[in-house]
Amino acid sequence: MGALGDLQAVLDRIGAEMAEAPDRGRVADYIPELARVSDRHFAMAVCTADGACLTTGEADTAFSIQSVSKVFTLAIALGRLGDQLWTRVGREPSGLAFNSVVQLESENGIPRNPFINAGALVVTDAILQGRRPRDVLGEVLRFLREAAGDDDIHINKAVAASEQATGHRNLALAHFMAAHDNLKNPPDLTCGTYFHQCAVEMTTRQLAMAGRFLMGAPGAARLVSPARVRRINALMMTCGHYDGSGEFAYRVGLPGKSGVGGGILAIAPGRASIAVWSPGLNAQGNSQLGTLAIERLTRATGWSVFG
Ligand code: GLN
Question: Could you identify which of 26, 60, 98, 256 might form a hypothetical disulfide with 266, taking C-beta atoms 3.0 to 4.6 angstroms apart as the criterion?
Answer without folding.
Answer: 256
